[in-house]
Automatic annotation (TrEMBL):
Main location as per UniProt: other
Cited PANTHER family: LIPASE, LIPID DROPLET-ASSOCIATED HYDROLASE
Keyword Hydrolase in record: yes
InterPro entries for this protein: AB_hydrolase_fold, LDAH
Pfam families per record: LIDHydrolase
Organism the protein comes from: Bathycoccus prasinos
Chain intervals for the UniProt region annotation (Disordered): 1-26
Protein known as: Serine aminopeptidase S33 domain-containing protein
UniProt xrefs under Gene3D superfamilies: alpha/beta hydrolase (3.40.50.1820)
GO BP terms in the entry: lipid storage
Keyword annotations: Hydrolase, Lipid droplet
Length: 374
């Protein structure tokens, strides 16, 4: 079990707890959406191994009931027979950097989209769920909130450790909710596929990989350079130290923030990036990336076997001109697998960093909802 550690640390989490939105559905019912940031502890976890989770809950109000509040004073809009509701649980795995807060708007949009998609299908399956919960679990050490990482902790985490971390969380949630859907973005698609492979068949209903990073792209000069750069661990540590030193000076810190957020239009992305850009954040991103490049050189070990075993429940979304999930790998994958059951959608309007654009997050959330529930 994963008991919650109540936390309001981090400005985004506090704002998210106060936000809710109403959405009209075809039958006139109202969908209430709550987004909250949680810090959860596993029973045997060390402090630096806590689960940082962004949770979005969309609830259909079919009847008016008395508003109630939970222990934190957060407004909860209850629905009739809510306790008997077999809701939808969807767990999201981020890319690298694996900061859960980046996916707050996407989680909100996906919870709404899943509820609307289920609404459209209710006449066919005669089942009407009243709630959808979408949770994004962040990677170890990839925290926007610096207070989650002890100043004495200089540890970074490998891809294998992140896979074990996410799998542990997925298992704990499945124990509570019976089954779940999975969504993985970039390297998160690889991590989600690992969860599909390790979980029981009935535990994961379906999985969607968004712009999946499943194999090193040998045709990409960018990846070749990045793979070399992050393999220079001394260089990574020195650059990170310089970053940490510069942030002690207000003017230099602002310069770093402007550089890191240049070109961003999403307020969420700017806010999270400013808080995330720290010494150990850079170390975790780069050195985890090093383990990614080294592990993902074996194409068949990482992809083909899992897809052949679970092709009917795994879907992918590819974008145009994305070196992390290039179209030639999509084509090679289809040729290697040779299975018609594998659903792949390609849309050149999608961008790899979709979480930094609210409109892109909403559009991709709607695509995910269709693929997960169809």
């Amino acid at each position: 079990m994963v008991p919650a550690r109540r936390s309001t640390r981090g400005r985004l989490g506090e704002r998210a707890r106060r936000k809710s939105s109403g959405l009209n559905t075809p039958d006139g019912a109202i969908v209430d959406v709550r987004v909250e940031r949680l810090v959860l502890d596993a029973d045997d976890a060390k402090e630096e191994e806590a689960f940082e989770v962004v949770r979005a809950t969309a609830t259909r109000k079919t009847t008016k009931t008395e508003d109630e509040c939970d222990d934190d004073g957060i407004l909860c809009l209850k629905t009739e027979d809510e306790c008997d509701d077999d809701g939808i649980l969807c767990l999201c795995v981020p890319g690298n950097p694996g900061v859960a807060e980046y996916y707050s708007n996407f989680a909100r949009a996906l919870s709404e989209a899943l509820l609307k998609e289920e609404e459209q299908q209710q006449n066919e399956n005669k089942v009407r769920r009243r709630s959808v919960t979408v949770e994004c679990v962040g990677f170890l050490g990839h925290y926007a909130d610096g207070s989650l990482t002890s100043a004495k902790t200089r540890r970074w985490f490998t891809l294998e450790e992140q896979k074990a971390h996410v799998l542990k969380y997925v298992r704990s949630r499945v124990e509570e909710e019976n089954a779940c859907f999975l969504v993985g973005h970039s390297i998160g698609a690889h991590v989600a596929m690992h969860a599909v492979k390790e979980m029981r068949e009935e535990d994961v209903k379906k999985m969607v990989g968004l712009m999946p990073f499943l194999h090193v792209n040998e045709r990409s000069n960018v990846q070749k350079f990045l793979a070399w750069l992050v393999s220079q661990r001394v260089v990574v540590r020195v650059v990170a130290k310089v970053l940490g030193f510069m942030q002690k000076f207000k003017a230099l810190k602002k310069t770093i923030e402007r550089s890191a957020t240049r070109g961003m239009k999403c307020e969420l992305g700017i806010s999270v990036t400013k808080r995330w850009a720290r010494e150990m954040s850079l170390v975790n991103m780069a050195l985890m990336g090093d383990t990614e490049f080294k592990f993902l050189r074996d194409w068949k070990r990482n992809v083909v076997d899992v897809l052949k075993a679970h092709a009917k429940k795994i879907c992918f979304v590819y974008a145009k001109e994305d070196h992390w999930g290039p179209l030639h790998q999509r084509d090679e994958l289809m040729e290697e697998i040779g299975l018609e059951e594998l659903e792949i959608v390609t849309d050149e309007s999608y961008e790899h960093a979709f979480v930094l654009d609210d409109e892109s997050s909403k559009k991709l959330a709607e695509q995910c909802a269709r693929m997960l529930l169809n």
